[in-house]
Design goal:
The structure holds two protein chains of two kinds.
Chain A (H helix, E strand, L loop, with lengths): L5 H7 L3 E4 L7 E10 L3 H12 L4 E5 L6 H4 L4 H8 L13 E3 L21 H10 L7 H14 L2 E4 L4 H13 L4 E6 L25 H7 L3 E4 L1 E9 L2 E10 L6 E15 L2 H11 L11 E4 L3 E7 L14 E2 L15 E4 L5 H8 L4 H8 L4 E8 L10 E5 L5 E4 L4 H20 L4 E4 L10 H10 L9 E3 L3 E3 L23 E3 L14 H19 L1
Helix pairs in contact in A: 2-8, 2-14, 6-14, 7-12, 12-13
Chain B lengths: L4 H5 L3 H5 L6 H11 L17 H14 L8 H21 L2 H15 L1 H8 L4 H18 L3 H19 L15 H8 L1
The chains are: A alpha/beta, B mainly alpha.
């Protein structure tokens, strides 16, 4: 029962899908709206605008990869083809690994499906501290409802053993824990969300909004890098784009010019600020590419007596907010507890040991459980996030420093995770940190963690959530765009992705992007009609 | 000209940390003192990123990081290391300019014989052997210099992942390969 491939069938039925790697002559394309980036923001924007009757051009730097190529269920293929920089993207100093998608559908093609509404304290903080309007709790509710319905978001109760450890630990300790809503339809519970869903169950942009936009006449061009937005007199006049070769990285030499009434930047919180920086758009208050928020992630590993098989089953079905809002939005750093799936390739990198130690730890993979803490950055002055700048060739570079405020959160998170894992029955626990080795009791773990030197390159740090860099605020001195995503200086430019968030979200951000972009592009469509 | 490891450790800490966690200062100092890198300037045949000196380095790192290779017969070990190098090359080639340049600085530094000896106590990669390579990684990762920690981590991670992405590594991990009922259904 081979699965039909949505795109093979769609293209046969007349969808306009262009692989720029196949183009050999320079050309100009025209549209009502050109959307740059096809992830959570670009995907929703494309559907809303195409359904409104506008002529939409969706431009994606990554390649079109569909269920036909996910059938091998192979980690190496996924890393090479579906992630930014072959899944080896990192901050400028290499201290924080950045997992971010790069194909049609962006990170939604590879994310783990967790679909949380923007937490109320976050929305309230934006209104109170960042001069954001129109995105209060009640105002956002219908948009979250709409997107939850659109993408089949439902509570997922079937925990795999890895998530079971988190739930059990929380229950033993009396900590808050909840089931995670996921955007899936007919999920087979395989656990391969991060490698491209092999059965098209995950309602990523790849299988939901983008096909719907294509059915309504939108054009998708992939393997096309937007180099620059040309502008004059406060308006974007054209997007200058370069076609990429089959490798998806090297320009082929073919240039495309895109003209549109309106432009939407939706490349995510690293690539969107980079595009605007390359375009040298006016930035009178030096806000562009500032305050990049990443939910720094730290991990704790546990050896469990039972089989965990951390590669199988819905990767995230349980979360705990016990430490998230305990001290309010602006107290000591809050964090959300979740679990990651562990496949052998990325898993070996997380373990970050070598020789016989690596061999021993890898041989115990089937009994290994991991908990992660997403640290909620950007809510206080001592957590300003990072910034995006450009390399000589115009590609993005992310700088991110960790303040004592963040490191304090890291140490408390290590402690919470170890306590939880022992409560859930772990035989041994260690923090994912160069100086941490497995210990057999919570008492020992407490001592070890208290002594861990908290420094870059000693603590294993990750991010899979990129936010900020083009913050929204009604005050042009504080934001790059207004609350509707409209650029403060460019009349026909909007930003519709996670880069508009003034702080981190405090939860996996996909539904926050979906809801906000649905709301803002619906308003934009009215302006453009 | 030779620097003993002890002399290197004696460099004023503040000066060394000025590299910003990159490798630029060390490399500039290295090339000024010892002349140009003796690594080839172009990629080895069959590779996009790895140069001859890098291929030697990762070939020496492979059995040091992944000791399981020691249990493979010579033929299997050879093909596995080749597949690992190809994975490492693919990852490095996919990097954007910023990371690619940082990694290139590290690899160039290690390709300058006197600096390599000073920093790693290894003369030639292909003569080092597992113990010496492991000692170098341990020393870098235990160092008080963040730059060496960064270098040690990236070498270990690149090498370890390059192996565990290969199906031949899975039997030893308990990962049985693609979940069978789904794999069968979508590939039937």
């Amino acid at each position: 029962m081979a699965l039909p491939d949505i795109y093979t069938e769609g293209i046969a039925s007349g969808w306009k899908v262009i692989d720029a790697a196949r183009l050999s002559a320079a050309q100009t394309m025209q549209a009502d709206v050109a959307i740059i980036g096809s992830g959570a923001g670009g995907g929703v924007a494309a559907e809303v605008l195409a359904l409104a009757g506008l002529k939409v051009l969706l431009l994606e730097e990554g390649a079109l990869r569909t269920s036909d190529s996910f059938r091998d269920m192979d980690e190496g293929r996924a890393m090479r083809e579906l992630y930014q920089e072959g899944a080896a993207r990192a901050t400028s100093d290499g201290a924080i690994a950045v997992l971010q998608g790069r194909s049609v559908g962006g990170s939604t093609t590879v994310n783990w499906t967790s679909s949380f509404r923007t937490p109320e304290p976050t929305l309230k903080h934006w209104a109170a501290e960042w001069e954001v309007i129109g995105h209060g709790v009640e105002e956002m509710k219908p948009w979250f409802e709409q997107m939850e319905k659109r993408l089949d978001v439902m509570l997922w109760e079937a925990q795999n053993p890895n998530n079971g450890v988190l739930m059990r630990g929380c229950q033993k300790l009396g900590w808050e824990a909840h089931a995670i809503p996921r955007n899936v339809r007919g999920c087979w519970n395989s656990g391969y969300c991060g490698l491209g869903c092999p059965v098209n169950a995950k309602q990523s942009m790849l299988v939901s909004t983008i096909p719907e936009a294509l059915r309504h006449g939108a054009t998708l061009v992939h393997r096309l890098r937007v180099r620059q937005l040309q502008h004059a007199d406060g308006k974007i006049t054209a997007a200058v784009c370069e076609a990429l070769r089959d490798d998806g990285r090297t320009p082929s030499g073919t240039l495309l010019t895109v003209k549109a009434r309106h432009f939407i930047a939706a490349g995510g919180a690293i690539n969107t600020p980079a595009l605007l920086l390359r375009s040298q758009l006016p930035d009178p208050h030096k806000r562009l590419g500032q305050r990049t928020l990443i939910h720094p992630v730290v991990l704790s590993l546990a050896q469990m007596p039972e089989r965990i098989d951390p590669f199988f089953g819905a990767p995230q079905s349980t979360a705990s907010d016990h430490f998230q809002w305990k001290d309010g939005a602006t107290g000591p750093m809050g964090y959300k507890l979740e679990v990651p799936p562990i496949f052998p390739g990325i898993g070996a990198g997380v373990l970050n040991v070598f020789g016989d130690e690596l061999r021993r730890e890898m041989s115990a993979l089937a009994h290994t459980s991991a908990v992660l803490a997403l640290l909620r950055d950007g809510f206080v002055e001592s957590s300003p996030g990072g910034s995006v700048r450009l390399a000589d060739d115009g590609s993005p570079i992310l700088d991110y420093e960790l303040s004592d405020y963040v490191w304090d959160g890291v140490r408390r998170a290590y402690l919470s995770m170890a306590e939880l894992q022992f409560a859930a029955g772990a035989k041994q626990v260690r923090a994912a940190h160069l100086d941490a080795r497995y210990v057999g009791s919570w008492g020992e773990a407490k001592k070890v963690i208290a002594e861990l030197p908290l420094q870059k390159f000693r603590a294993t740090l990750f991010t899979a959530h990129l936010m900020g860099g083009c913050a929204m605020s009604q005050n042009p001195k504080r934001g790059v765009v207004d609350s509707g995503g409209r650029h403060h200086q460019m009349a026909n430019l909007s930003v519709m992705d996670g880069s508009v968030f003034p702080t981190s979200i405090g939860a996996n951000p996909q539904l926050s992007i979906y809801g906000l972009v649905a709301q803002n592009t619906t308003a934009l469509a009215k302006d453009l009609m | 000209m030779r620097c003993e490891p002890a002399e290197f450790d004696g460099l004023p800490r503040r000066d060394f940390l000025k590299v910003g966690l990159g490798f630029s200062l060390a490399l500039t100092a290295g090339t000024a003192l010892f002349g140009c890198s003796d690594a080839g300037r172009t990629a080895s045949a069959g590779y996009v990123f790895l140069r001859p000196g890098d291929v030697e380095l990762f070939s020496a790192l492979a059995p040091a990081v992944v000791t399981e290779l020691g249990a493979f017969d010579a033929t299997k070990r050879g093909t596995t290391v080749e597949a690992m190098l190809s994975n490492v090359d693919g990852t490095c080639a996919a990097l954007d300019m910023g990371s690619r340049q940082e990694l290139r600085k590290l690899l160039d530094l290690l390709a300058i014989a006197p600096l390599r000896y000073a920093l790693t106590s290894v003369g030639a990669w292909n003569e080092a052997g597992t113990e010496k390579m492991q000692a170098f990684l341990t020393r870098w990762r235990g160092s008080r210099f963040a730059t060496l920690n960064a270098g040690g981590n990236v070498l270990v991670r690149l090498t370890a992942s390059s192996f565990y992405l290969l199906p031949e590594s899975w039997p030893s991990t308990g990962y049985p390969g693609p979940l069978e009922y789904v794999f069968k259904a979508v590939n039937s």
